[in-house]
Amino acid sequence: MTATVPSTETHRQAWLASAAHRRWLEAETDHLLGLLPAAVDPRGGFGWLDAQNRLTPGRPAELWITCRMTHVAALGQLLGRPGNTALLDHGVRALDGPFADHVHGGWHAVLPDGAAPAQAKGAYEHAFVVLAASSACVAGHPDGPALLDRALAALLARFWEDDHGLMADRWDPATGRLDPYRGVNANMHTVEALLAAYDVTSDRSHIDTALRITTRVVDEFARSHDWRIPEHFDAAWNPRLDFNRDTPADPFRPYGATVGHWLEWSRLCLQLRASLGPGAAPGWLLPHARSLFAAAVEEGWAADGAPGFVYTVDWDGTPVVIERMHWVAAEATATAAALWLETAEPEYTTWYETWWDHIDTMIRDHERGGWHHELDRDGRPSSTVWSGKPDLYHAVQATLMPRLPLTPTFATALARGLLRD
Predict the structure, then answer these.
(1) Which of 104, 145, 142 is nearest to 121 (CA)?
(2) What residues contact residue 334 under an 8 Å CB cut-off, 6+ apart?
(3) Which residues are catalytic?
(4) Rounded to an integer, what distance in angstroms lies between the CA atom of residue 341 and that of residue 35?
(5) Which of these, 169, 87, 85, lies nearest to 127 by C-alpha position?
(6) N or C: more exposed end of the chain, with fewer CB within 10 A?
(7) Among candidates 225, 217, 124, which has minimal Cα distance to 164?
(8) Residue 284 CA: distances (Å) to CA of 276, 287, 294
(9) Residue 14: helix, strand or coil by DSSP?
(10) Cα distance between residue 370 and residue 366, in whole Å
């Protein structure tokens, strides 16, 4: 699958090779980190910011947001930004305290209010506990190692299905049973988390597990569906291609294929390949990463004639939900940067520049700060899928990926002084 590459001048320096551009990225990192204090929830963890960068009244703190923001705080601390040590500690204390389920093990998906009944637990959220704990370890938080040990134990004991080489999705502590639904999203973030945990622990089993998951999802599911990755499965891991056809704009389980995930998997293939090393990495990781990227450009970018990536497409590539998500643009720049780092091919830096122009023109909130999380086809802020600005993780990592090597992962690379000025 070949994407049409926008034209570019050849007499100037590519942004990805430019120290001046890296300074711009650094300023954008600081711009985003400046929003983190506003998300501190006094009840514990980090809350959901609205479009004005204020905590959303009445909305409880959620585990996945707290983990992502804790990870971002660790990155800020490793970058030497004052204030982030306290923010990291706030997140770790929430994960060690009110979010921890001391009865059933693991973590509550939502900060419990009093004697709330046992909540179903998700692999998606638990993968982010592993990521947050890994970053806390690297940043030197004293409670990080114990938190990481517990997080890895919970994720692998409750959700790993060794016969399938994949993570199940949800576990009900009241019954001790797994939900029959299986999903790829939780597996994608598990790969990211296990790569980070491997950098902290040097435990080879984590990278081996990440490779098993990636092999199933990318070399099997994606390749056999023309790179449109099926997201939803039954308990035997048979694709459910009609899942949520009646509610296509679901934020976590949308109908159809999610374009942004093709980009994330492309980047993860490259990071996994770099982590494994040239002697151990399967030969398909790089070409599959390229194919996923090309498919995302061809079917996702300006698919309806307007700038931006559509959220989802049908199984013939037709757009389904056309709203533009900030995280897809962020992952697009990060993946283009990763592919350029690996291949030095000008196609990738050209797309990289195109998408940062799009982010700066349409997605960055120049009035209030941060990034609009969703736009409609005409580039206006909307809330069909997402409301407010609950997440800094994708955007912050997008500002770091072009300045770091493919391995080790973000926090460890910063700790080792590998950030390019």
Answers:
(1) 104
(2) 263, 267, 397, 398, 401, 402
(3) 261, 394
(4) 29
(5) 169
(6) C
(7) 217
(8) 13, 6, 15
(9) coil
(10) 8
Distance of CA 78 to the CA centre of its chain: 19
Q: Are 134 and 199 in contact (CB under 8 A)?
A: yes
Helices and strands (H, E) in the chain, number of each type: 13, 11
Residue 119: pLDDT band with limits 50, 70, 90? confident
Which tokens go with 90?
A: 């706030």
According to DSSP, the residues that pair with 287 across neighbouring strands are none
In whole angstroms, give the CA distance from residue 215 to residue 268.
Answer: 12
What are the Cα distances from residue 24, in Å, to 69, 280, 348?
A: 22, 36, 19
Give the three-state DSSP class for 9: coil
Cα–Cα distance, 372 to 386 (Å, whole number): 10
Percent of the chain exceeding pLDDT 70 equals: 96
pLDDT in tens, 304-344: 999 999 999 999 999 999 999 999 999 999 999 999 999 99
Segment 57-111, tens digit of pLDDT: 989 999 999 999 999 999 999 999 999 999 999 999 999 999 999 999 999 999 9
Whether cis (ω within 30° of 0) applies to the bond prior to 408 is yes
CB 292 within 8 A of CB 307: no
- Indicate the CATH number for domain 15-415: 1.50.10.10
| Cβ contact 288:219 at 8 Å | yes
**With 90 as the cut, is the pLDDT of residue 46 above it?**
yes
Q: What is the rounded CA–CA span in Å between residue 31 and residue 331?
A: 18
Which parts of 141-258 fold into alpha helices (H)?
144-159, 184-201, 204-214
Q: Is 116 left (phi over 0), alpha (psi -120 to 50) or beta?
A: beta
| Widest distance between CA atoms in the chain | 66
Distance between CA atoms of 28 and 370, rounded to whole angstroms? 9
Residue type at 44 in one-letter notation: G
Tokens encoding 200: 């902290």
